[in-house]
Write a structure and sequence with these properties.
Cytochrome p450, disordered N terminus, alpha+beta, about 575 residues
Length: about 575
């Protein structure tokens, strides 16, 4: 930062000699060029260099000539400095990595793979070529390394033994912050001003809802209630012979369930009700996710100038209005809070160790609502999508599962909590686990390394690197799973449950997913009830394509034809 400070002082001394308007202009250039936290040194230094050269030339040349001279000299300075920085970075990057041009990195290759819907195949090839730890050097405007992991020992290091050194990145929190705020999904457990207290408190209170009593009496009732609606909807399409996008149905099902269990509201998505919150939530999540592959959204005034950011702002306002209404209504009736069983009521009624109410601020509760919605909807909806895709493409697995379902419940009986356990229905549990292995709802999970570290595999991780373990690849790795591409539910019936670091689809360690058992239960309930009454076949000619994003959905949906039994 010494060069930056010296350049800034020199710039100010030149600007003092100029008119107020010109001074204001150059100050804006400096401020806008130093907004990126990890680029403040390099970009800020170049902006300062440009301002100094141009300001000096203004005393001898015209403004246009001065600007051209400033740009030319700064460009030369940037190129020389850039290659010097790159050489220093590459000297620190000893992990096997994908060769790439200095300036563009692998991003053009990745964007091409994303466009062709082959990014997961490309990722698998890179792992096969480089081994269970490999990385790449991003573009010139991003200073960090990207390191990918598929070794359970390294995953355990990241998620457990040195978990405090691997946290959510600033980029992730900035990209999703508009939607999720500071909720548990993106809150950090370490290296924060409060030492992770916010995350720990949210997790401590949220864990109280996942009790055996709630699973038996509230979760099961909710899942069966909304599963009946799905069955009626499928019956209608079976009678008409029209295809039905089951992925869309599953997203509505899980949102209705989490609306009831998360904040005690009947959203009515499966009933076709117009629900502004559901539409706004969908669009906001879509736009926020695409920020990862977009440019310019984080610049000043982007929320005014960019159509997508303007739409996001409108959607977030609708979501905020919904959350505010729910919170206000619930908080107004404090006497009834202890008789309610949703997560929002649990937080409103929560007390500290001295039995005093926490009195959470409205923004905290708003973030809670949004995080509960995204955590409870997307992952389980993706799981259900791939369950029925798997069954439709593996008829022998479907036949065996249908036999187990009918043996347990008959043609008309409804599932019960005790019957759906792995002990009572091992094949069902194996089917769900196989789908999680091959199509994990969260296929890749990035963290940022705070301090230099060394992985158990022997690879060194420089501070600032993005470290991401890849459940999608781990589940298809022949070194971890015999015949990995074969759908074989029996592998879960005849063996012990694998280590959470070999099968990290619900994370592991201190940040293991609280809703893991709920996701299993919700998926099992709907799977059983649909198998009791119909066969779902893929629409002829339709190709299912895996999406590349935070969650692994089908980019092309899941249109299916229903046949009543």
């Amino acid at each position: 930062m010494l060069f930056f400070a010296v350049g800034l002082i020199a710039t100010v001394s030149f600007l003092i000699q100029l008119s107020d308007t010109t001074t204001f202009f150059w100050l804006i250039v400096l401020i806008c060029s130093t907004q990126k936290g990890d680029s403040i040194f390099f970009d800020g230094l170049c902006a300062t260099f440009f301002a100094v050269i141009t300001a000096y030339c203004l005393s001898n040349y015209s403004p246009v000539t001065s600007i051209m001279i400033g740009l030319s000299v700064t460009l030369m300075f940037y190129i020389i400095s850039f290659f010097w920085v790159i050489s220093k970075r590459k000297a620190r990057f000893t992990i096997p990595h994908t060769p790439s041009p200095y300036i563009l990195g692998v991003y053009p290759v990745m964007l091409n793979q994303i466009e062709q819907d082959t990014v997961w195949e490309w990722t698998m090839r890179e792992f096969q070529m480089h081994g269970p730890v490999w990385g790449y050097v991003p573009t010139c405007w991003e200073r960090d390394f990207i390191i990918n992991l598929a070794d359970p020992r390294d995953v355990e290091r990241v998620l457990k033994t040195n978990v405090d050194n691997y946290v959510k990145s600033d980029e992730l929190r900035q990209v999703l912050g508009s939607v999720l705020g500071s909720g548990i999904f993106i809150a950090n457990h370490a290296w924060t001003a409060d030492g992770g207290a916010n995350w720990k408190l949210q997790r401590k209170i949220a864990a109280r809802i996942f009790t055996g009593k709630n699973f038996r009496h509230h979760f099961m009732g909710c899942f069966i209630q909304h599963a009946r609606k799905v069955c009626r909807l499928v019956d209608c399409h079976a009678a008409s012979g029209q295809p039905l996008d089951m992925q869309s149905v599953f997203f509505k099902f899980t949102l209705d369930c989490i609306g009831q269990l998360g904040f005690g509201v009947s959203l009515g998505c499966l009933e076709g009700k117009e629900q502004p919150f559901a539409k706004a939530f969908d669009r906001a999540q879509h736009i926020a996710t695409h920020r990862f592959y977009s440019v310019g959204w984080d610049l000043p005034l982007s929320s005014v100038l960019m159509p997508s950011e303007r739409e996001l702002r409108r959607c977030v306002k609708q979501m905020d209005d919904f959350a505010r209404g729910v919170i206000t209504e619930r908080a107004a009736d404090t006497a009834a809070l202890h008789n309610k069983h949703d997560l929002l009521s649990l937080f409103l009624a929560a007390t500290d160790d001295e039995d005093k109410p926490y009195a959470f601020p409205p923004v905290f509760l708003r973030d809670l609502v949004m995080n509960v919605a995204i955590a409870g909807r997307d992952t389980t909806a993706c799981l259900l999508t791939w369950i029925f895709h798997m069954l439709a493409t593996n008829p022998e697995v479907e036949r065996k599962l249908r036999l187990e379902v009918h043996a347990a419940f008959g043609a008309a009986g409804e599932p019960t909590y005790d019957t759906l356990t792995a002990a009572h229905m091992p094949y069902l549990h194996g089917c769900v686990s196989e789908v999680l292995r091959l199509w994990p709802p969260v296929p890749i999970d990035p963290k940022v390394c705070v301090e230099d570290d060394e992985l158990p595999s022997g690879q060194k991780v420089p501070a600032g690197s993005i470290v991401q373990y890849v459940p999608f690849v781990m589940g298809r790795d022949a070194a971890l799973w015999p015949d990995p591409m074969e759908v074989r539910p029996e592998r879960w019936m005849n063996e012990k449950r694998p280590s959470a670091y070999k099968f990290p689809v619900f994370q592991a360690g201190p940040r293991v997913c609280l809703g893991m058992n709920m996701a299993y239960l919700e998926a099992k309930v709907l799977t059983c009830m649909l198998l009791q009454r119909c066969r779902l076949r893929p629409q002829p000619g339709h190709q299912v394509v895996m999406n590349f994003g935070i969650t692994l959905s089908s980019k092309t949906g899941l249109p299916m034809l229903a046949e009543a039994l």
